């Protein structure tokens, strides 16, 4: 496999090669992992994961009453939540044991780096606070909320499906990758794994160790 020509950017052909390599790596190695599938569609790399949810995934600073509703801090919060039905979702509307999360990796035509999109397979969509509670590790919450080196979590229409999805903004990804680059050349697969380690980990997405087995 050829090396990247213009790190930290990646070309369309290099992105396709890296995604195909990761798909091939996971072909017969997903049993016993959290990944349910990994597939290159020709336009995006699709990863489906089952995520176990424990109390440690929840933000301990947020309180709920006995009915499962979050305590509202002030009248402005009450008004905002009453105007937005998505914010009125209850935590017990979500399967307390696990979530099926769909990840989509596309290539940004502007920044020339991969972009991580994600949504959960639930009867009701998760709001942004639930995304932070259930998907984002505590160590990543402050950097994401403050739009740090990894950018923030936003919602937009997916560039391929045109369906609403959350994504991590790629504006700071090139700089973050440049900081992490070791003194060696990268194949497209190396690049994608480095990127997943940086961006994927911010929402708890990790490459299963079985994919590295010989």
From TrEMBL:
Any one Pfam family match given in the protein's UniProt record, by short name: Autophagy_act_C
UniProt cross-references to InterPro entries, sorted A to Z: Atg3/Atg10 (IPR007135)
Stretch list, region Disordered: 51-81
Top-level division of the source organism's lineage: Eukaryota
Annotated Gene Ontology cellular component terms: cytosol
The keyword Transport is assigned to this record: yes
An MF annotation (GO) of this entry: Atg12 conjugating enzyme activity
Keywords: Autophagy, Protein transport, Transferase, Transport, Ubl conjugation pathway
Gene Ontology biological-process annotations: autophagosome assembly; autophagy of mitochondrion; protein modification by small protein conjugation; protein transport
Biased composition (Acidic residues): 66-80
Family the UniProt entry places it in: Belongs to the ATG10 family.
Record-given protein name: Ubiquitin-like-conjugating enzyme ATG10
Organism listed in the record: Exophiala xenobiotica
